[in-house]
Amino acid sequence: MSVETDVKTLVIDEQEVSARAGQTILEVARENDINIPTLCHLEGLSDVGACRLCLVEIKGSNKLLPACLATVQEGMEVSTNTERLQKHRRTILELLFAERNHICSVCVSNGHCELQTLGQEQGLTHIRLPYRNPELNVDASHERFTLDHNRCILCTRCVRVCSEIEGAHIWDVMGRGINSLIISDLHQDWGSSACTRCGKCVQVCPTGALFDKSKIGSDHPKYPEFLPYLNLMREAQ
Amino acid sequence: MSKLKLATVWLDGCSGCHMSFLDMDERLLELAEVVDVVYSPIVDTKEFPDEVDIALVEGAISSVDDEKKIKKVRDHSKMLVAMGDCAITGNVPSMRNPIGPEAILDRAYIQNASAQPQIPCVVVPKLLKYVRPIHEFVKVDVFLPGCPPSADTFHTALIALVNGGPLDIPALTRFGA
Q1: pLDDT digits (tens, 9 = 90+) for A79-110
Q2: Alpha carbons B59 and B75: distance in angstroms, whole number
Q3: Nearest-angstrom CA–CA distance, A11 and A69
Q4: Nearest chain A Cα to B85, which residue?
Q5: Contacting residues of A for B100, CB less than 8 Å apart
Q6: Half-sphere exposure of A14 toward its Cβ, with a 13 Å CA cutoff?
């Protein structure tokens, strides 16, 4: 018995690839070892296209599309690493570095940070934009974890993992634009929120914004790989 | 070939970059064959020379004095290298930026003083409102991030700069390295 699947063929970076209908450009690219940088995307969570790092060019369109959300189309010609895209990616990273207080040298995630690594991969040696230096709080009210808004890039991975996987949805985003802030419950201290203390948000946080209090110095690698595995086990049940 | 004139400058930083520079150990001898250190916190010269080929600058711009110095360094150097995270991002010294110099000085010299609480106003230079990276004041030719950049990074980068060879800095170091 054969299962009928709708197969699409397309070209990514001059490489002919095939995909199932409904797959995203990012999924197909990664299946074919084509690297597209991402920050808000995490395997096992829904995609929101917030960070814009995965923007790609589609031949025949002036619009850049986020590879994590754009689905494949028959005959599509995708470029993932043009000069224009590299320029945008560097600028996005510079904006993230300038927006809040990212002091890598004293950050708990130094050496394990996705923002730091991406900066290096994209060739950043300095930030051309002026730093904003906002005054932001650190919420250390939780018995096990800390939220440092200075390091937050608003990727919303914590919001999604808490809502979609843990089912508690204690995290959300307050405010708009530059004033956006991750909050727990109705903007109360994390320690007095309905947090289940599962720690998933800490593991998926790409920077040092969410960290385990028992970690000191910069010895805080994170392990978000549990997510697809957990999803797979749940589906099997 | 005459030796290149190398200067190193210490602004608002912890001197860690200079320590790491010295960590090149025996490789300093190799470097000494191609450069002369004409100005540095580790040599006696007090005035920045008129003509310098390569100036390595550690530290952020935090005071009116730093601002004056970096302009002088730029005016008299062919190549200016921002050395380490403080010079490039503001790093630890910039952690006072959201708080402001008044509150910092008050904490250090008034609240925590046991005798004669007063904010120093003579000899020491006035602090700027914000600690800024040096490229916001002058043109920087090379950025060498790291806290501090490792001795290996210094060695590879300096040899490349002296010889005019290719230099892939992101392959060597990053912020916080």
Answers
A1: 999 999 999 999 999 999 999 999 999 999 99
A2: 18
A3: 17
A4: A105
A5: none
A6: 2
Only one residue has tokens 């006035």, namely: B126
B134-159 per-position pLDDT tens digit? 999 999 999 999 999 999 999 999 99
Q: Which two tokens stand for residue A211?
A: 């960290």
Of A105, A134, A136, the CB nearest to B85: A105
Q: Which residue of B has its CA nearest to A135?
A: B98
pLDDT band at B1 (very low <50, low <70, confident <90, very high): low
- Among B138, B136, B135, which Cα is nearest to B76's? B138
Total Cβ atoms within 10 A of residue B61: 30
CB contact under 8 A, A111 and B170: no
Q: How far is A103 from chain B (nearest CA, A)?
A: 6
Contact B91 A105 (CB under 8 A): yes
- Taking the C-alpha atoms of residue B144 and residue B87, their distance in angstroms, rounded to an integer, is 9
Determine the length of chain B. Answer: 177
Beta-bridged to residue A183, according to DSSP, are A172
pLDDT at A59: 97
Q: What is the pTM of this model?
A: 0.94
Q: Where are the alpha helices (DSSP H) in chain B?
A: 16-22, 27-32, 64-75, 85-89, 101-105, 151-163, 169-172
Buried/exposed code over A12-30 (b: 16+ C-beta within 10 A; e: otherwise): bbeeebebeeeebbbbbbe
Please return the burial class of A1, using the count of CB atoms within 10 Å of its CB with bins 0-12, 13-18 and 19+. Answer: exposed
Q: How far is CA A109 from CA A45, A122, A208, B68, B127, in A?
A: 22, 19, 5, 35, 30
The one-letter amino acid code at B8 reads T
- The model's pLDDT over A10-37, given as tens digits with 9 standing for 90+, comes to 999 999 999 999 999 999 999 999 999 9
Regarding an ipTM greater than 0.90, the answer is yes
Interface test with A, best of B97, B130, B147, B174 (most A CBs within 10 A): B174
Find the DSSP H helices in chain A.
25-31, 83-99, 114-121, 157-160, 200-204, 226-236
